[in-house]
């Protein structure tokens, strides 16, 4: 028996509602996928920017580490060889030297410098290529390598880097950690409205992690800037220190020409020669303060000595330059 008109109308209405429901579901699914793509883009952009900043910062740390070792291996070693030949240097008050008293080299400073050299030589003898590059970056990050020297001497770069308070892993600034099971495809087993809620949760997580990575990126940029400042300061100091060491070597050589192993008494030096010793020693002290200071302190922190050292040494540069010109 044919269905009454009202029955057919009811079936048609149900079918229409089903079609509308499927259309709404498709729209919800598209919106969920759009939100998920936005979440992934937000996360990926922040991650890429952080990776770039970390690579640049690590490169700057490596450059600073290389500069530190080069200055130590050349000017500083030559200074120590000559300065240790001179004994009983009178403490004369030459013009302009009062400002530089804190940079005067003491016997304990010389001991520390010798220990630094032994550590450098042992640490880098075992490293080459990428391992050496990591060692230079660690040197800049941790000052004189005191916390990581034994690991570097054993050739265990990974252990050495992770020993720097957690801020260093595969690279000195590897601070990126992707969340587990993030941005997987939306499961077909979920309903469209559930997928949309899941996508919104993903977006909220992506935005949260992106903010954290921006903070890490700011830290990486700060590390790179400090490394560049230290390298520039070290270069400027060595531009005066190296010529003074040349003159100090010549003076020592002239005094020991007939006995290369003879110790020189400070009391046999002229005022000009004593001034040269004083100025070279103050420059050595300034250089040592830059060699010593670490860039990082613990996990993701700039060491508190960084900015104070930059301020202190930069503030005394005019006096250092003035005294350098006098000798």
Explain what this protein looks like in three dimensions.
- 70% of the residues lie in helices and 1% in strands.
- The protein has 327 residues and is an all-alpha fold.
- It has one domain.
- The protein has a two-stranded parallel ribbon with strand order 1-2.
- Helix 1 crosses helix 3 (130-141), helix 1 runs parallel beside helix 6 and helix 6 packs parallel to helix 8 (304-326).
- The chain is elongated, with a radius of gyration of 32 Å.
Keywords:
single chain, about 325 residues, mainly alpha, 2 strands, about 70% helix, elongated
Summary?
The protein is mainly α.
Q: Largest sheet, order of strands side by side?
A: 1-2
- Per the principal axes of the C-alpha atoms, what is the gross shape? elongated
Query: Considering DSSP H and I runs of 4 or more, what fraction of the residues is helical?
Result: over 70%
Give the biggest sheet.
Answer: 2 strands, parallel
Summed up, the domain count is 1
Number of strand segments? 2
- Termini separation comes to 121 Å
Strand coverage percent: under 5%
Overall mean pLDDT stands at: 77
Instruction: Give the helix/strand class.
Output: mainly alpha
Radius of gyration (CA) equals 32 Å
Low-confidence stretches: 5-18, 145-172, 174-190
Could you give the order of the helices and strands?
A: HEHHHHHEHH
Question: What's the tally of helices?
Answer: 8
